[in-house]
Amino acid sequence: MEDASYNAESIQVLEGLQAVRKRPGMYIGSTDSRGLHHLVYEIVDNSIDEVMGGYCTHIDISINQDGSVTVVDDGRGIPTGLVPKYERPAVEMVLTVLHAGGKFDRKSYKVSGGLHGVGMSVVNALSEWFEVKVRRDGKEHFLRCERGTVTVPLKELGPAEGSGTTITFMPDSQIFETLLFEYDVLAEKFKDLAYLNKTVSITFKDVKADHQDRFHFEGGIVEFVEDLNHNKARLHEKPIYLLAEKDNVIVEFAMQYTDAYAENIYSFVNNINTAEGGTHMVGLRSALTRAMNDYAKDNNFLKGGIDSLSGDDVREGLTAILSIKVPEPQFEGQTKTKLGNSEIKGIVDSAVFEKLAEFLLENPKVATICIERAILAAQAREAARKARDLTRRKGILESAALPGKLADCSNRDPAKSEIYIVEGNSAGGSAKMGRNREFQAILPLRGKILNVEKARMDKILKNQEVHNLITAIGANVGPDCDASKARYHQIIMMTDADVDGAHIRTLLLTLFYRYMRPLIDAGYIYIAQPPLYKVSKGNKEAYVYDDEALTKVLAEMGKNVSLQRYKGLGEMNPKQLWETTMDPETRTLRKVTIDDAMKADEMFTILMGDEVEPRREFIMSHANEVVNLDI
Ligand code: 0RA
C-alpha cells in the first residue's frame, strides 16, 4: 500500500516536472534572457524569505566559470528529514514536486501569481543539473538532480557548523535560447533586494570577469531614496519615513522632495518591482494628495489663486519608495508587475494618510518645505496651462502643422510607421535618401537641442527642435501625452557613436521620460544601433557593432585587413546607412525601457544639473568610456 502510493506519487512528480519542461513559458514567462534570469530570482527569492523571517543575514551569489550559478545563504537550511506520508526527504520534495507548497510553504508573503514564486522545482526542471547542499543539525547534506530527476539521492557529506543552503544550477541549453547571464541586470535586482531588506548583506560575483559587488544598506528604503537623490538638490535633509501594518499588510514608505520637475516613485510588492503600478499606487497617490491638501488648508497655505493641490503638484520633484508586503498578491499586466488586489488601495491609502498626517503635524518645518514645494508646482502648472492654451489656440500642436524638416512616410498606419530622429542635417540627408519612404519618416534634429533640466514645460514647448519632435510624433506632451495618438509606433533615435551623440540620446530619453512617458510605456521608443567599424579585406566587408565582436571578426579575417572606425552617421553613404542601421531585415533596434530612461534621467541630472561637484566627479570617472555614455 505504502509502495503503491509512493509509485503513484513518483509518476505524478515526473509528469509535473515534465510539464514544466514541455511548456516552460507557462511557468517562467519565456525562455529568452528574461526567463533565464528569472531562474536566479526564484532561488534568491527563497533565501530572501529566510531573511524576512529573521533567519538569514548573508546571501552570496556567483556566476561560475562554467556558466552555472551558485546561491549560498545562512538561513535555516531546507529541511532534510523524511516527510511521513511519502517517506522522502523534504528537500527532495521541495525540488521535485511542482508547487510542493502546502506544508513546506513557509512563506508568509508569497510571490505567487504568474511569473513569481513558481518554486524551486521549476528551476530544477529547467536545469541541466541542479545541486543542493544543506547545512542543518550539525551536518552537511547533498542532493543532485539532472533535468528534474534525482541522480544522487540525499546523502550526508560530513559535519557542518551553523546552518544554510547552497544551490548550484546549470540552466538547460535544450530549454533556453541563451545561457548568458547579464551581470548588470542581476546586480540591479540584488541591489534592490538589499535596499528592501536592510538586514541582509548580498555579495555578487562574476568569477570569469573577476568582478564583485557587495550590497548592504542599513538605512533600507530611506537610504534607497537618499541614493536616488544623490545628485539632486534635496529640499529637506532626511527622507520622511513611514511604517504601518494593517490587515496583515505591511506598508513601508520613504519620500523626499527635490527641486527637479519629475516625480520618481518606485513601488515594490513582496520585493517585486511593480513597474506597472497597481492598486497600492492608487492608494498611495490618494493618501499623498489628501494629507498634503489637509495640512495646507488647516495651516492657511492656500492663497493667491491656488485653492487646492493636484496630485501632480504634490508629486512634482518627489522621490519615493513604496514597499508593501501582501499575503496573497495578484499580479497582472503585460509583465505581471501590476498589483491587482482591490482591497490594497484602501489599506495603503489609510495607512499612509494617517502616518503622513501625523508626521506633518509633528514636523512643521519639513511640512512647510513640502507644502511650499507643491504650491510652487501648482503655480507653475497654472502658468504652463495658460501657455499651452495659447499654443493650442494658435494651432501649433495640430497635426496640420507638421514640421517642414520632417520627411514623412507615405503610410498612414501608425502601427506600420517608423520615425527616425536623426542627429545633424548631413546624417539626416543620408537617412532621407537611404530610407524606405513607404513606412520610414525622417526628422533631423539640429545639434544640442536644449537644456530641459533647467527649463519648465512652457519653455520646452517653445523650443523649435522639441516642438518639431512633438508635432511630428503627434501624441502631445505632459499630462496630455497620449500614446494612442502617436503617428508612429516605432520612434527610433539614431545618433552618432560619440560623446555628442550619447549626449543627445540622453537628452531625448530624458525628455521622453519626463514628458512623454506613455510612449515609453507603450514600447514605442527605440535606439538604433549603427555599426562602430567596417572591416574589409579584398572585396569582403563586415560591419561590426561592438568591440567584443571586433576582436572576433579581426581574428576571423586574419592579416591585412583594413579597419574603418565610424565616428558619425555622416560617414556612411545612404546605402550603407540603410544596410547597417535602417533595414528592418538586418538592423538591430534596442527597445527603451522605463529603466533605461530612468538611468538617462539620472545621468542627465548629473550632466546638466546645478550641482557642480557630482558632474565633475562623473565626467572624471567616465572620461575613458564616454562612448558608452548612453544607458
Ligand atoms: C522549507 C522549510 C523551511 C526552510 C526552507 C524551505 C528553506 C528553503 C530555501 C531555499 C534557499 N534557501 C532556503 N532556506 C530555507 C523551514 C525550515 C525550518 O522550519 O527549520
Task: Describe the protein's architecture and organization.
The structure is a single chain. With 631 residues, the chain is of the alpha+beta class. It folds into three domains: 18-215, 2-Layer Sandwich (Heat Shock Protein 90), CATH 3.30.565.10; 221-386, 2-Layer Sandwich (Ribosomal Protein S5, domain 2); 398-530 and 589-625, Rossmann fold. Helix content is 40%, strand content 22%. The protein contains 21 helices and 25 strands. The strands form six sheets. The protein has an eight-stranded mixed β-sheet. Strands 11-12-15-13-14 form a five-stranded mixed β-sheet, with helices on both faces. A five-stranded mixed β-sheet has the order 19-18-20-21-25, with helices on both faces. A hairpin with a 4-residue loop joins strand 9 and strand 10. Helix 9 (279-298) packs parallel to helix 11, helix 11 crosses helix 12 and helix 13 packs across helix 19. The longest helix has 30 residues, at 364-393. It is globular. Mean pLDDT is 87; it is low at 623-631. 3-[3-(1H-pyrrolo[2,3-b]pyridin-5-yl)phenyl]propanoic acid is lined by residues 46-47, 50, 73, 75-79, 94, 104, 106, 165.
